[in-house]
Amino acid sequence: MDRRQLLLALAAIPLASNASFAQNSGAAAAPDVAALARLLIGRPDYSDVIIGRAQAFQADLDATFAARLAGLVQAVARIGSKDREAVIAGLSQAEVATAVQLISPLYLGYTGSPSTTSNIDNSRFVTFLKALMYEPTADNVPRPSYAHGGPNYWTATPDGVKAPPMPADILEWGDKSPKAASTYATPDPRYVVICQGHAKTLAEAEAWLAKK
Questions:
Q1: What are the angstrom distances between the C-alpha of 62 and each of 58, 65, 67?
Q2: 3-state SS class at 124
Q3: Rounded to an integer, what distance in angstroms lies between the CA atom of residue 212 and that of residue 196?
Q4: Where are the beta strands (DSSP E) in 101-197?
Q5: Predicted pLDDT at 209
Q6: Nearest-CA neighbor of 38 among 134, 130, 147?
Q7: pLDDT in tens, 9-68
Q8: Which among 97, 100, 104 is positioned nearest to 124, based on CA atoms?
Q9: 98-118 pLDDT per residue, tens
Q10: Where exactly are the structural domains of the chain?
Q11: Any residues with CB less than 8 A from the CB of 193 and at least 6 apart, and which?
């Protein structure tokens, strides 16, 4: 098997992921749907391909979505405003729910409900780099899987923090790493009583233990 055959074989393997990638999801949204989504999210330059992917995946999940979305487009056209707040104020609760269904994948980056316990669910990948929910904290929190700094950046003491003395080889891994404890320390009975819900304070815990 040559390199080309190997790559073709790998490309044929389906991805096992909680937010599976779709194979035919590159169709752009219709202009009216794209304009509606951009109005709702306040992003006039947002990708119509990503909007189209979100629309198609939501329609696959919900057979009523396409018809409700068409009704939403007509309702917004009747309102005739380019102001997002005015448009939302003029919609019914059902129309607002449809609007949320359209734009939620643009914020979350996926459709459906990912499972934390199984590789099989109904979620589908929409976007990662353009998922809007990460933007409000982008200056402090990196997107998942992206390191905030360079390699091993977490080993440096943060600015303004005075770290306690550590063993000289604490940053080493492998056979030089700190050894795990072989036994668990015996917990203070008072804290056990509090954790079990028998008391809320140390005094109450001591009184409870005294009765035992």
A1: 6, 5, 10
A2: strand
A3: 15
A4: 110-111, 124-125
A5: 94
A6: 130
A7: 434 433 334 444 444 456 788 889 999 999 999 999 999 999 999 999 999 999 999 999
A8: 104
A9: 999 999 999 999 999 988 777
A10: 13-135, 185-212
A11: 199, 205, 208, 209
Q: Which amino acid does the sequence have at 126?
A: V
Contact 40, 103 (CB under 8 A): yes
The pLDDT value given to residue 8: 45
Point out which residues pair with 110 in neighbouring strands: 125
Task: Say if residues 94 and 100 touch (Cβ distance below 8 Å).
Answer: no
Q: What is the dihedral of CA 203, 205, 210, 212, to 10 degrees?
A: 170
Q: CA 52 to CA 50: how far, in whole Å? A: 5
Q: Measured between alpha carbons, how far is 198 from 136 in angstroms, rounded to an integer?
A: 42
- Residue 40 in contact with residue 33, Cβ under 8 Å? no
pLDDT surpasses 80 at 120: yes
- Tell me which residue has tokens 């003395």: 165
Q: pLDDT band at residue 169, thresholds of 50, 70 and 90?
A: low
Instruction: Please name the amino acid found at residue 183.
Output: T
Give the tokens for residue 19. Answer: 């937010």
Per the prediction, the chain carries an average pLDDT of 81
Better-predicted residue by pLDDT, 119 or 189 = 189
Token pair for 5:
């055959």
**Average pLDDT value for residue range 57-84:** 95
Give the type of residue at 142. P
